[in-house]
């Protein structure tokens, strides 16, 4: 049958050994959370006597008298984590989303504990010590900080274990085309996801050999049930965006025989509407394929965030911006700022302001894409481009209402004309204001990358906007600039 028997036996043996350790790794998350919550409560208890945010008391009860409150705090927090599925989160969940969940659940747990403590004190004769508001505040703050640090420790530990083949799930990819190669490369380059690709099933053609080093185990999807059992597969990704409905039904049916998790790469219909929902009209179910999220009062909310963010940014960054202007003039003659026509909201052109990072005659022969090690870029320009500091002046465009802090990145009219003719729905990204950063950029799609993928990300942002999504994108952008790491790491 398909596959190398020696490799298959090695995968099966490794999987059985890994499964015995997975349960221990899973329980370790509970242990770390409990230890961090206990440590946070202890530090909060001590902080009340030394941190002058509140009136420092002369004395306070022994820590032992707070043990019932500590136990209640730990049990309540862990229980909320469990019901919020924070012990069953998807692989690859971002640090920012995880931190938001921690803040929300720890705050809720702390309020519940404080309320129960007050209720018990007022309605029982039990000898329970008072829970001071200052202690409550310190315990809340340190619990959030310590749990986030603990989960970072757990994430780092799991990454180390996954690099050694522990805490990984066997994955089978169905398809060997462009999309399958993209998924394979992404998973191979992301060990933190915890997947071990055992092989690929080529459905469209009688292929042999491998795809990016992953062996092709077969060319007939009817072999899938055997492969699921032989390789102890736990996840299947169907990477056939052009598959017919009947073919997908057959594939899913075959995969279900092995009781595995099934994921399907979306087709062009999903490209048109990434977030589908079911509504009803007079009892008739209807599938909503397009529901623009950013409209009505949300536009006012986003504009308010743009004004506040741009004003604060211009005020606090003005000394650095003045220094940058001086350095630009010292290195090369010409203007400090560079205004370039870009296409904005509703396809209207505007002048986007940037610090000049190239020589004054850089486009004397016409516009062109920036290339790696571009000789037209000045020395200070190289630094600005590497850190995206040349874009900071676009805060002026944001304040003027021509741009937003977050949104699809604007293109030059000459390129917009080209893209609109060959990319479906490209112009719909102009239904929102252009942004200083966007969903495409924090997912690595910037500069000389696929315009189709960038358009797909921009449309997803337009149709799935939320205030938290904007905040998340801004945080990921700032962290990637200052820590010089891929924004996907957050």
The structural class is alpha/beta
Please, what is the average pLDDT? 80
Q: SSE order in H/E notation?
A: HHHHEHEEEHEHEHEEHEEHHEHEHHH
Assembly context of the chains: single chain
Biggest β-sheet strands, sense, barrel: 6 strands, mixed
Q: What is the total number of structural domains?
A: 3
Unreliable runs:
268-274
Q: What strand order characterises the main sheet? A: 3-4-2-1-5-6
Please count the helical segments: 15
Radius of gyration: 27 Å
Helix content: 40-55%
Shape: flat
Strand content: 5-15%
Q: State the end-to-end CA separation.
A: 42 Å
- Would you count the extended β strands for me? 12
Relevant terms:
Rossmann fold, 52% helix, 3 domains, 12% strand, two-stranded antiparallel ribbon, alpha/beta, 490 residues
Structure description:
The chain folds into 3 domains: 5-163, no CATH class; 169-265, Rossmann fold, CATH 3.40.50.20; 297-489, no CATH class. 52% of the residues lie in helices and 12% in strands. The protein contains 15 helices and 12 strands. Helix 3 (95-123) runs antiparallel to helix 4. The two termini are 42 Å apart. 31% of the residues are buried. The model is unreliable at 268-274 (pLDDT under 50).
Topology, please?
Elements: H1 5-50, H2 67-83, H3 95-123, H4 133-163, E1 169-174, H5 178-188, E2 195-201, E3 210-211, E4 214-218, H6 224-230, E5 235-238, H7 245-256, E6 261-264, H8 268-272, E7 277-281, E8 284-288, H9 297-331, E9 337-343, E10 349-355, H10 379-387, H11 394-400, E11 404-406, H12 413-422, E12 435-437, H13 439-442, H14 451-463, H15 467-483
